[in-house]
Amino acid sequence: MKKFSEFKTQAISKLSNCKKILNEAKDHISVNDYLEKIDRTIEDLKEEKLKVVFFGGFSDGKTTILSALLNRTDLKISPAPTTDKIEEYKFEDFIVIDTPGLFSEQEEHDEKTKHYISEADLIIFTTDAVNPLKESQHPTIKWLLKDLGKLNQTIFVINKLDETGIDIENREDFDKMCSTKKEVVVSTLNNILEEERDDYLTVCLIADPWGMGIKHWLNNREEYERLSNIKQLEEIIDSVIKSRKYDLIQEKVNSVLQDIILNTQDNLSELIEVFQERLADLEIKKKELESELNGINSQLVKASNRIKNRLDSLRRDLISSVASASNIDELKQFIQTEIGNPKEAEALKSQIEQIYNEELEDFHNYLFNVQKILEEIALAYEEIDDLILNVAQKLSSTSPALKGLLTNTSETLIKSTIFKTRKIFSIPIKFKPWGANKLATNISTIARIGGVILDVAVAAGKIYSDIKFNNKKEELKNNINSLFGELIKNTNPEVLKEIFPVVAEYEKEGKIVLKQYEETKENLEKLKKLNNVLTKCKAN
């Protein structure tokens, strides 16, 4: 029986050690649910009691036997011999039930008695070696073994073998007398049960050699074990309670460790393996994305330089056309062809817009590639999400640590941003350069000058003086130079970004993706740490 306490202590210690290991990791991973489960199991184990029912006469040595089994001298059971009710005594991990009245002629097997005995983990039936299993005990024995089916949990202790006249220190005498008394007990039990069997649990004992008292013998334990045969009783008790208690306790411990370690670890290993594969794929995409994002500014610089060159070329062509006009008709033709309607200047605006659109087409395609990479990364995270959900379903509620460890907030943010960006990107690019209002004013100035020239030409006809004509040409050239000067000056990467609002979205999104990549790596390390912690618990 003492071994029961030791076994229970070992089981609690095993869980406590696992708890200690988990506590060391709780700053890095979520293990609170595991810790709570271990605490609950430890409390359950602490409440686990071994219920022992004693049958036997008042003087059959029940208290002495129990004291020897528990290695305690302060036990007091055995109520007065006239008591006909069962009595319950609690000692640490044990509940001892004494049943002195069950051998009385007026015995009634009431529900309370049946309840106690039906829940018993161990029944110790003590009997006097001189006259084992008195006839008055037969009805109770039959009721106990046959009606209640307690045969496999009942140990018949043939006590006081020293009162049969043997030499206590002669083991041969002990064994010979013990064999004789066991035969008597087996024969009696077969008669009572009307069966022929020899598998009854029986043991011979001298609970108090020479009547020196249990206190003396517990202080001389080695000699006591040699003379009393108490070790054999302990071994039989262990074999009886193993299936009812040891296995149950072990099952509780294994259940917790199974949930925390084995089931979780198998799926965790799968998740780690998949995570590593996906992370390797993401590493490639991450490098592509970093390269493309870093290239945005250089692409804008190139586009900006091409636009400036073409704007300057257009400026020079316009100036040259104005300068080469030798009369009002030629100038009129230039204005109609190159500038357009004096009010709208649609021809000039169209040429400028064409330059921007043609030179930004490559950049548009470049951004499309960035979008493609971002979408591939979003799909990769979607796969990771699905894998996590799949593993979580396998783990069910037994792996709460994964819930706190693997959040999908950043992945959701990435996907929502990409869908928002895709919406922006799907809108056709329309020319809207920096200072659009100012550009409109400058073009209107050119158109107004052209209109004045045309008005004057119509009014004055051939009389329009060369001086005034040349002055108007210079004014027109100055306005053209001013317009293109402003356009060239303000055609730079920052301005071009305003034509492509998606660039700002990509840059913002890129930061999120790169940050999430680092978080994913951290999550993988957390998974590995959790796996290592569980391995330590398993090895504990």
From TrEMBL:
Q: Which GO terms describe its cellular component?
A: membrane
Domain (Dynamin-like helical) spans: 195-523
Compartments, record wording: Membrane
Q: Which UniProt keywords apply?
A: Coiled coil, GTP-binding, Hydrolase, Membrane, Nucleotide-binding
Q: Which InterPro entries match?
A: DLP_helical, GTP-bd, LeoA-like, Mitofusin_fam, P-loop_NTPase
**Has the keyword Ion transport been applied to this entry?**
no
- Where would one find coiled-coil regions in this protein? 265-317, 503-537
Cite a single Pfam family from the UniProt record: DLP_helical
Q: Name one GO molecular function term.
A: GTP binding
**Record-given protein name:** Small GTP-binding protein
Name the major location: membrane
Enumerate the spans annotated as G domain. 51-160
